[in-house]
Task: inverse folding
């Protein structure tokens, strides 16, 4: 009976695009806590909503395909801006001039990387690829991964992506990158499993690591998140890395770490 509920959940409109490994992991964790399958199902749905959300609707994903074609012909920032607006994570960092300014500030410290690993990437590899940076993305959204890979396969951009659950062992690749991004990812990982965020930072094989944290709630309230995450970051920087710089842009706190 549990298998029937799990299969129904994985086929549902809201979660059929989520990485199956993530759904199975969360189901297993909730199954250990609740006896009734309906309680398990409810808990899994609540957990999935908290970590996946509606970052890109099916309509936005469909429109993104047309946007890519338009950008391929025009190579204009107007069309790139339109592409990035189709996903919540990149949309909140628009306009494009502000995203460019953000990465200019990061690269002023790290240098312009030849290769980037983007964890919980959304469609950010599309931006980096359009700016000529080879990027490998990992995300639990099949739609985001499909869009990134289409950007490579259809238009030859230097990007690729894999659909994976970052809490699964081995999900973070061991190959070497110049820089890695973990933007607003660590709180989500820590919320699911204590200690997961620090272990993920330690697993990244890159000279530079850029992480960020939200400084306001989804409702826009300032409840001391910046100070809280700053304390957490100072306490969890591992012996392999050191904080080189930190700064705040809009409602996001950034840290740049360098491998020792």
Result:
């Amino acid at each position: 009976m549990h298998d029937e509920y799990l299969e129904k959940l994985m086929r549902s409109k809201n979660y059929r695009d989520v990485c199956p490994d993530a759904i199975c992991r969360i189901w297993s964790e909730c199954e250990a806590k609740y006896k009734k399958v309906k309680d398990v199902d409810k808990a899994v749905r609540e957990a999935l909503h908290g970590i996946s959300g509606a970052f890109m609707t099916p309509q936005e994903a469909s429109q993104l395909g047309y946007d890519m074609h338009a950008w391929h012909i025009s190579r204009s920032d107007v069309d790139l801006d339109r592409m990035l607006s189709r996903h919540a994570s990149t949309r909140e960092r628009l306009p494009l001039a502000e995203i460019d300014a953000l990465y200019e500030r990061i690269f002023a410290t790290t240098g312009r990387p030849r290769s980037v690993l983007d964890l919980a990437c959304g469609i950010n590899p599309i931006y980096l690829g359009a700016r000529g940076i080879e990027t490998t993305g990992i995300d639990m959204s099949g739609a985001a991964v499909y869009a990134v890979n289409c950007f490579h396969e259809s238009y030859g951009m230097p990007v690729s992506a894999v659909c994976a659950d970052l809490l699964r062992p081995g999900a973070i690749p061991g190959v070497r990158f110049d820089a890695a991004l973990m933007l607003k990812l660590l709180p989500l990982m820590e919320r699911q499993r204590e200690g997961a965020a620090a272990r993920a930072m330690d697993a990244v094989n890159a000279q530079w690591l850029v992480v960020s944290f939200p400084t306001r709630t989804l409702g826009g309230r300032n409840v001391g998140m910046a100070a809280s995450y700053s304390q957490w970051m100072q306490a969890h920087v591992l012996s392999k890395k050191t904080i080189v710089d930190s700064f705040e842009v809009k409602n996001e706190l950034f840290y740049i770490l360098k491998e020792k």
User: Anything to note?
Assistant: The CA atoms of residues 84 and 127 lie 7 Å apart. The chain has a mean pLDDT of 93. Strands lie at 115-119, 134-139, 159-163, 177-183, 206-214, 241-249, 252-259.
